[in-house]
Amino acid sequence: KNQVEQSPQSLIILEGKNCTLQCNYTVSPFSNLRWYKQDTGRGPVSLTIMTFSENTKSNGRYTATLDADTKQSSLHITASQLSDSASYICVVSFWMDSSYKLIFGSGTRLLVRP
Amino acid sequence: KAGVTQTPRYLIKTRGQQVTLSCSPISGHRSVSWYQQTPGQGLQFLFEYFSETQRNKGNFPGRFSGRQFSNSRSEMNVSTLELGDSALYLCASSPTTGALKRDYNEQFFGPGTRLTVL
Residue A109 and residue A4: Cα distance in Å, rounded? Predict the structure, then answer.
């Protein structure tokens, strides 16, 4: 079954600290993997997109890594800021029956405290 | 460039009613996708329209339908509302469609419409 699982479900860190969010997927064949940031009450905003041939991609203080062999991705946030408090969603796309599909993880809710 | 806009932002309906939500994509974008987001199920894909044609569909009942106009604006309709339809409905636009096998099908989300069914 095609699934995307994220961990932890929630995380609290102090401002200035680093953190890493995990995404494991069982989707096959894999097309690309994305990380989104969603502030409360707003739509998700894309952070990174990676295809199976890419190992890492950065967007400012956000760095995503991908291991297509183990089907794992991580999102590393460096020097966290209060504005990083949000939900982070991992999305995997794939092809099935000639149709393009997206599977969303349930997200990690991050709270950055001063 | 203006972002994706959705109207209305908030809506309250009662069971059995129907509702129409509207989405205006970013200028020049031809693909519009709709998603339902609930605390229990997370984000779930409803359908995608590209050049007025439905290109992709999620696993939702026929009560959920949509359409796209020649100016790429899209509407989503839910008939015979149920309590479980209460959710944040998100629209996302893209310059291309994933059906074209493009690796980077970047999607830009709107703020969503919060639907409450009483």
Answer: 16
In the A/B pair of chains, how many CB contacts fall below 8 A? 55
Residue B104 — very low, low, confident or very high, per pLDDT cuts 50/70/90? low
Task: Assign 3-state DSSP to chain A and report helix, strand, coil percentages, each to 5.
Answer: 5, 60, 35
Which pLDDT tens digit goes with each residue over A48-87? 999 888 899 999 999 999 998 899 999 999 999 999 999 9
CB contact under 8 A, A99 and B105: no
Q: What is the CA radius of gyration of chain A?
A: 14
Contact flag A101-B45 (C-beta cutoff 8 Å): yes
Omega of the bond leading into B8 within 30 degrees of 0 (cis): yes
Let me know: does A50 contact A33? Beta carbons within 8 Å. yes
The string of pLDDT tens digits covering residues B10-31 is: 999 999 999 999 999 999 898 9
Q: Which residues pair with A62 in a beta bridge?
A: A59, A77
- Check whether A16 has a pLDDT greater than 90: yes
Q: Say whether residue A99 is in contact with chain B using an 8 A CB cutoff.
A: yes
Nearest to B76 by CA among B8, B3, B1: B8
CA A29 to chain B, closest CA, distance in angstroms equals 13
